[in-house]
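User: Teach me something about this protein's shape.
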Amino acid sequence: SVELADKNCKIDDLELTPEELEMYVDLHPFTNTTPYTVVETMSVAKAVVLFRSVALRHMLIMPKYQGPEVSPINSNGFPIINNLAHIWI
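Assistant: First, the predicted structure itself:
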């Protein structure tokens, strides 16, 4: 909130009621239900080409074998893609 930003508070300093802790925001209207995915064995070069040519903001890396983890990447959080993209652009 604006109040939190004005006071330079930390999020840990907030006191929330049990009712507020149960609240949530439905993001379905703003999310893509069919995201682009790549398998973990795909080359970084091919992933970068796809990432940049389609102007993606997020991409999911799916494991080769079924497992509990899926690795999301985005343009800010994956330095290899950022570094390669600067070379190619």
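Now, about its shape. The CA atoms of residues 48 and 81 lie 6 Å apart. Residues 44-53 form the longest helix (10 residues). If you'd like, I can walk through any region in more detail.
User: That's plenty for now, thanks!
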